[in-house]
Structure prediction request, 176 residues.
Amino acid sequence: MTEGSEATSRLMGALRVTRWGLAAYAIALGVLVLDQLSKYWILHVLDLSHREPIRVLPFFRLNFVDNPGVSFGLLRADSDGGRWLLVVFALAVVAALVVWARRAGSLLTAVALGLVMGGAVGNNLIDRIRFGAVTDFLDFHPIFPWVFNVADSAISVGVALLLIEAFARPKEPSVT
Prediction:
């Protein structure tokens, strides 16, 4: 084998994606589309940013909140510098998740990574670049104190699944 073909072979191996990795990318795309469509509906169909919250159930309302912070309004990034710092951080996280997803070896990992990637791109990249903040609108007050969106939900569920997988995985016997 020549040096050039050996390098090409190594590159192709490094770029290979498992079937669970492809599933993770598909889930991320689905989350991203659902998140952005829901925000389009809130902003342009309901025009919720210019009206009072809409009570749907006694414990649930659609309530527009322009959120410059991170998860549930924490760590506010009110300045342009803070906004772009969050964008750069989100890009790094998404890039790491894309690499991790390539090697996903189970359905649970694929679902978890897909949820987190789709939510991170929807909230932390698209919204922050377009609007400078994240559009939140799901309000379950008084059950849950923060207003959130589809992407927040996806990220939270994805992280919970990753934690479940990490702690539920059988421990490998230690070699002594």
About this structure: The radius of gyration is 20 Å. Helices lie at 3-15, 19-45, 80-102, 107-131, 150-168.
